[in-house]
Amino acid sequence: MLNPQLTYCPACGTRGLLHTAKHVQCPACDLELYFNPGTAVCALILNPQGEILVTIRAHDPKQGAWDLPGGFVDPGETAEQAMIREAQEELGVAIQDLKYLGSASNLLYHYKGITYQTTDLAFACTVEHPERIQAADDVQHSLWVAPENMDLTLFGFDSIRQIVARYLDNRPSPCP
Ligand SMILES: [Zn+2]
After folding, report:
1. Centroid of ligand 1 to alpha carbon of 117 (angstroms)
2. What's the predicted TM-score (pTM) here?
3. Centre of ligand 1 from the C-alpha of residue 6, in Å
4. Residue 24 CA to ligand 1 centre (angstroms)
5. CA-CA distances (angstroms) from residue 49 to 52, 53, 76, 152?
6. CA of 2 to the centre of ligand 1 (A)
7. How many CB atoms neighbour CB 152 within 10 A?
8. How far is the CA of 101 from the centre of ligand 1 (A)?
9. Strand 18-19 versus strand 23-25 pairing type
10. Exposed e or buried b for every residue in 69-88, given b needs 16+ CB within 10 A?
11. Ligand 1 center to residue 22 CA distance, Å?
């Protein structure tokens, strides 16, 4: 059961909603409420040295854990617009050269008593002035991590861990 605290039908107030993995159904009226995954974006921001920008989460869920810059896509936004907005909000810089990398699923995004499921869309990108990066909003601070120093166990979410691991596995080998 995804969110067992949802007990009363929001349409008719009947108690005892029927829960499935994807939705709740009211036994008294026609209401069916679906919990489709929320769309989220994250960025693998690379500097000229090939290091990856890792952020430290300022708030729950997973306060203090490693993360990538990003967040939820707002209604009406494209994933690219959301990524540019989130980078501006969290780092104070404009990202560029966005290249879609792939996606991963997060089934356990807990926030204030509700469990959300998300589909995280990952982009590789660069930033023109890395020295101007200033953590704000949901980011406590940020650090550049070289691929050989990446500690995947420090990431708060499995989806982000998978995205970083996949990137590291697929990147071109450094010249000998
Ligand atoms: Zn109802």
Report:
1. 24
2. 0.88
3. 12
4. 10
5. 9, 11, 35, 20
6. 19
7. 13
8. 42
9. antiparallel
10. bbbbbeeeeebbebbbebbe
11. 17
Read off the pLDDT of residues 56-89 as tens digits, 9 standing for 90 and up: 988 888 899 999 999 999 999 999 999 999 999 9
Q: Tokens in use for 161? A: 């861990």
Residue 56: which H helix or E strand, with range? strand 52-57
Please tell me the CATH superfamily of domain 38-170, with its number.
Nucleoside Triphosphate Pyrophosphohydrolase (3.90.79.10)
Q: Is 102 left (phi over 0), alpha (psi -120 to 50) or beta?
A: left
pLDDT digits (tens, 9 = 90+) for 116-141: 899 999 999 999 888 888 888 887 89
- Region 148-167 average pLDDT: 96
pLDDT of residue 175: 60
H or E stretch covering 160: helix 158-170
Q: Where are the domains of the chain?
A: 1-34, 38-170
Which residues sit with Cβ closer than 5 angstroms to ligand 1, an ion? 9, 11-12, 14, 26, 28-29, 31
